Amino acid sequence: MTAAESFDVIGFDADDTLWHSEDSFAKAEATFAEWVSPYAADGVDVKAALTAVERKNLHTFGYGVKAFGLSAVEAAITITEGRVPTSVIAQLVELVRADLTAPVRLLPHVPEVLAAVGRSYRMVLITKGDLIHQTFKVETSGLAHHFEHVEILLEKDPEAYRKVLAGRGIAPARFCMVGNSVRSDILPVMALGGTAVHVPYPLLWELEHVEHDEHFAELASIADLPAWLGL
Ligand SMILES: [Mg+2]
Known about the structure:
By secondary structure, the protein is an alpha/beta fold. The chain has helices spanning 3-6, 22-36, 46-61, 65-79, 86-101, 110-118, 131-140, 158-167, 182-191, 225-228; strands at residues 9-12, 122-128, 149-153, 175-179, 195-198, 217-218. The chain folds into two domains: 3-19 and 104-228, HAD superfamily/HAD-like (Rossmann fold); 23-101, Putative phosphatase, domain 2 (DNA polymerase, domain 1). A six-stranded parallel beta sheet has the order 3-2-1-4-5-6, with helices on both faces. Helix 2 packs antiparallel against helix 5 and helix 4 packs antiparallel against helix 5 (86-101). The radius of gyration is 19 Å and the shape is elongated. The model has no long low-confidence stretch (mean pLDDT 95). Magnesium ion binds at residues 13, 15-17, 179-181.
């Protein structure tokens, strides 16, 4: 049986799989460090402190740019013991607004890969994070028409995937997920008995790092997906 006969539906992650995302967060973190460091005590690692605040807030604020912004404001105040000027807080809020309204930047080969895969498979988009921002990105990406369903989850864990697949009548064994995050796109789908293909992005958010000893397919580029599927 070829790969092409093994699946009914291909699922795609969005951020850092179809379009750039983490590079914006990396830039925002660097900007945060530049703006906040002058008010922090000597020797404080402001980036590490920001990540610690994000980790603490993850379950309350969720994922995405707005959650990052709230954590950045909290971290700026706590790291500087309140010395950070309100002008810097205002700049941080503007940084968040700019990221939320920035045009989607597609990764190379994505439109033609989706067109090629879509000729042979049903396709769904499964992403997580902020509903407004993710919806904006999907709707302005020019890619929405490829997908029979778009799902924006709070968390990408096995139970969330199980509900999405059950709701669409998709058997996990006939489902293949494509994404950049082992923690969010690969392991939870494999836990359900599905297949997953890892397409790494050059940057990975610290809170997406995961230890594992699973084996799964890894492609250097999404451009390799049609051939991997036997198309
Ligand atoms: Mg992703």
